[in-house]
Design brief:
About 30% of the residues lie in helices and about 20% in strands. It has helices at about 40-50, 60-65, 80-95, 100-110, 180-190, 235-240, 250-260; strands at about 1-5, 10-15, 25, 50-55, 75, 125, 130, 145, 145-150, 155-160, 170, 175-180, 200-210, 230-235.
Amino acid sequence: METITDWNGQSLEIRRSRGSGVPYVTSWECNVIRPGSGEWPAWLLKQVRGYVARRSWFDDEDAAALAAELGSISKFQSLRSEDAITWSWFGTLAVADDQARVRTVQWLYDRLGLNASASEEVRIDQWQRVVHPNALSSPNGPEIDARIDDPRVALIYVESKWGAQLGSGKGAVEGTLDDQVVLRRGSLRRDPALAGDPDRPYVVLGVSDRPPDLGPYAESGGAEGVRPVSVSWITWDDLAACEVHPHAHEFARYLAWKRAQGSVEPRLI
């Protein structure tokens, strides 16, 4: 067992996986920023319980300590958890008061160069499955890390990365794969539920430590009948610098703490 200090100066117990030595906290709640209300939303708790690590990754004593709270080991307990850091910015914003959410989403629109004014109807959710653009009838469409849905204003699908490469899935051409950005752009274009959606900006937004080359996602002009969907990127440092986020200063400390633990090596996607 090891003890470290968290981003707020509190003592924190960790256990490490065999071999690679990935640090896990004994309570997942110690690895994320708590919402202002102090209450965890049901959709977050579902994700925490649904994404589990294998006990075989740990020595028996460590596995027992890590599973004591939930009966299983959640990947949210890992200091390398992509979901944990995504919740800590987008999730806490989702459950913030309306004014804070509107101010922060407006900051994001401005940062992305969108000519849009955030409305009080804007909502954020996480880890929802959307339509698979290359298999419309499949129930296993892409799971998006966050969605910013502002009716009649903008719709943004967020794909966040914390030290991992972009994944891929069934491609538009038989026998090929499309990466996560391409799949999300395709979903925004082919989702039948969006067929009658009003004209508004549609964006796939990537988040990582360093932005990749967006050249491969460039499209020359819009084909007739094809909805334009832009691909943008932002860094975790950019998000930490957003002063109007309701947890702005805490998130900046949290991000610095995550890096100080060596939980990820910043790299290009």
